[in-house]
Amino acid sequence: MTMQRIHFTELTEFHKFLGLPAPENPLFSVVSVSSRKPGNITSCADKEIVLSSDFYSISLKHITSGEIFYGRTKYDCKNGTMIFMAPEQEVRLVGLNIESTGRTILFHEDFIRGHKIKEEIRKYNYFSYAVNEALHLSPKEEQMISGLIDQIEAEYHNNQDEFSKELILSQLDTLLKYANRFYHRQFLHRKENSSDLLDKFIDEMEGYIADNRQEEKTIPAVEDIANAMAMTPRYLSDALKVETGKTAMENLHLHLINKAKDLLLKPDATVATVAYDLGFEYPQYFARLFKKKTGLTPTEYRQSYN
């Protein structure tokens, strides 16, 4: 299987890649890819393509066969699936076939500059999600999202006037808010069906600490744990927030403090040795974190048990 890597700097290039006419707006477009209209995407059943761009994209797709990868891991996207990509983010398509019509909204950062949506979009972590983190829609959710895309697409193809951009941005803002809502539903559904995310998080953290015992010790980073779990740090943190009420960093600190409590009660332990065993480079930083989380200094904690 041949591999092709392509980066698009302009929307016009992406349209040309799909065999479509130039966009009606150089900074914004809505494109459709159908199995009934052969093109570079739908005809890549025997190819591997890595795509990236300088613009945002929001896609609603149905896949009949093939695989979509973010990073190293694939995800199931046979039902209605939404994929959000920020500038410079890569997506890998392997042996892809698209059923019916997949639609993608594309917009450059300059298109949203000066509008409230530019600040809002920073709050939507799903533009930074990657491995196994697509949004899987229920039939009702898909119908709602599809309706919003219909409105945006209709306005895009309408004769552009002074109201066009504001109407498109308003509808786009609504779509992003619904996507955020549906992602939260997906996290809750995951919590109901699999409540062991925290256990896996702690297992990976313990494994990291154990692997570093004979090497230069460092505190586990959320990024390292997320990579080991085939997730992005933001997706892991958001999922843990729903499951536990705490972010990934808060859970990491809480687990380190719990381990510290056990280590501090050993007869030969000192604050410095405990800090070092946990990967803290400076005992003072460990002591500050311990007091922040427990209300006691490490020494006061030991004395309270003695």
Automatic annotation (TrEMBL):
Transmembrane segments: none annotated. The keyword Cell inner membrane does not apply. Residues 203-304 form the HTH araC/xylS-type domain. InterPro entries: Homeodomain-like_sf (IPR009057), HTH_AraC (IPR018060), Tscrpt_reg_AraC-type_HTH (IPR020449). SUPFAM superfamilies: Homeodomain-like. Keywords: DNA-binding, Transcription, Transcription regulation. Pfam families: HTH_18 (PF12833). The keyword Transcription regulation applies. This is Helix-turn-helix transcriptional regulator. The lineage of its organism: Bacteria, Pseudomonadati, Verrucomicrobiota, Opitutia, Puniceicoccales.
